[in-house]
Structure formats: C-alpha cells, structure tokens
Predict the structure.
Amino acid sequence: MENEIKLTKLATCAGCGAKVGAGTLAQILKDLPVLKDERLIVGYDKSDDASVYVINEELAIVQTIDFFPPIVDDPFLFGQIAAANALSDVYAMGGEPRLAMNVMCVTNKMGKDAIYEILRGGYEKAYEAGTIITGGHTIEDPEPKYGLSVTGFVRPDRVLTNSSAREGDVLILTKPLGIGILTTSAKAEMVEAPLMDKIYAQMAQLNRTPRDIMVKYEVHGCTDVTGFALLGHSCEMARGSELTIHIETEKVPYHKEAYELAEMGFIPAGAYRNRDFAERDVLVKGDVTRAMQDILYDPQTSGGLLMAVSEGDAQRLLSELKSSIPCAEVIGYVTKKEDAYLVLE
Amino acid sequence: MIDARGLSCPEPVIRIKKAMASKEKEYEMMVDNQTALENVTRFAQHNGYEVEYTREGADYRLRLYQS
C-alpha cells in the first residue's frame, strides 16, 4: 500500500523541535527593515507568539502561523496536534481563534488517504476551537509538513503578551514537560505505546480551557511553551518584561519517564539549541540535576500555557484550572531584575 | 568502530546501545555533530563507561571504556 511509509520516517526532526533556534532567528531578524504601524500593538520586537493589530476600541485581530514535520505516524493525530499547536498561539495572547488556513507540504511517498487524514485531524481540532478553515496552500516537498495560519479576535485592552509580566507575579504552567525527550525516545523504541498515546493526547489537547479560565483573573502576561522550551520561553518573558523569573524546579510538572531517558542521552538537538540560547541568562542556584535541566530545555510540541498572574489571584486561578486540568501547577515567581534573567531554584 | 556520522539523534545513541549489548570493555565511535557527541557520552556514562574524544576535522572520534 502506498501509505504504509511511516510519516515520522519522512521527517528529519519532529514537531516544534524543527524550529530554528531563537538565537539564530534573532540574528537574522534584527537587520530586516520594520514598517511601523501604530495599530500593530504586538509585532516583531518582543518575539511574541502572534501579532496583534487593533481594528477599533473593542476589537483587535491576532495573527499567527505554525507548521512542522510529523511528530507521530498516525496522520489523523498529526493533523490534530499540528492544529492544536497553531491555535495555541492565539490562546496564549488571550484571544479566541476564528479563521484558519491550512499550510501543507506533501511528498509523493504519501498516499492520498494520509493527506486526507492529516486534514481531517486539523479540521476536527479547528472546529473544536470554534474556528472555521477557509482554504489553504499545499506544495510538494521532500518532507511532509502541516499546520495552520490562524486569525483570532481579542479586546485590545485584554491582550496578554509575553513581555508584560509584573514584579510579584506567580507563574503557572498547564501541561507537563518532557515531550521532546519522549518523542525522540519513541523513535528509538524506548517508550511503551500506552505512554506515547497519553503524550499524543496531551499534544492534541487545545489550550482553550486554560485560556477561557485565565481571562477571568488578573493575568498580566502569557505565552505557550513550545519549541524554545520552558526556559527559552521564560527567558523571553523575563527579557521582554525586564524582570527576573525564578523557576522552582521541584514544582515543575513533567513526565517522570523523561527523566531517565534524559540521563540515557535521548535528548533532541533542539534542547541543546535552547540551552545555547538561554544559558547565559540562567543562574542555577539550587541543586538542579543535569537531567532536570534537560527537561527544562526540552522543546515542547503543543505545550501548555505559561501564565504570569497577580499573587492575589494565583491560588484561585490555580484551583479553577485544576478542576479541569489537574496537572497545572505554580512553578515560580517574578521579581525585579536581578543579575540573571532566570534563576533555577 | 561504530560509524554514526551522517546520523541525527536518536540514531547514534541507538547504534551504541545495540553495540553495548556485547558488553565489551571498549568501543570506538565516530559522530559528526555536537548533539550526538553529548548524547552518546551521556548514554555511555549512564552505563558505566568513561568517555574520551578527539576532534578530527568536523568529526568527533570517541573512545568509550571501562576502567
């Protein structure tokens, strides 16, 4: 059968691990001319999850795109994960996705069924998010890829950027880490199928619920944890906000199995890129093992939301989150700028 | 000698894992990227081997041994 070729075998790097390193990207972007438009209230300058363009006092549009090579062999699941990941950027800005377009690369080694199943997965997730798919663009490429360009809406005064955390805020993370290590290990057949099923289901989970809950509280900043890992994204938040983020590593939720696999060297290349990007701004204060650091630098595909919430609202937000997302945890806090942007405790 | 040049992770780690099933005291391996160098080192150390390496142009030659 033509669609028997495993999707992940056609990809050299998987999911958000395929992302070009943040450091490399910043180097390239810095020399490009920027055309200013005062209605663009979130754009290039703070490397945020999406752009936000104000239409009027009530309405701004949130614009984003995300796509990557297969992280799983099941095409339907790949479509779901890629769509959930792309939609997440809108949720991370506090917005609601409304319109989307498919972005797709196909190879002649894929069967028509596989292409259909990828799209079916994407459509299902988009509809679950209340988003309509209005078209797209598909090209041939040696490596399959799928994702969405998404347009969402948000009130201009309710935009949550990754650079607006405040001193005294508490950080909450809504999905456990270890996805990159586990998917790399799965390629080496080091992970049992039931665990991987759980991991795929986690990646396909929309960040809609945590978004809908967080907008009811005094959340100042938000981002989703994806290819740049918890530390890369936290570092962007800290640099953007000119504050220091303290990560209480013992509280960070992660998949326990990823720990031993990290000790055994099943670490994706993206984790090393993330370390290169963030390390100069990281101070390791506590006794944080190498494997734990690997988990903190591990690129996540369709990871959770990282919220900076006022201390007064933190416990109420966490308990409401926990009623539908039990793995959500408080993982750190924000102080005024210290010597390092990130402190691991 | 295990030649894992041209391979991206986790393939080099899979190669050394398979090779170590023979439980020899020493292995020699070539890799061509930093990720493979670090991951193979982690795997070997986790399994009780010491690791030395030298650079050969763009490649790394690793000696994994039990003392």
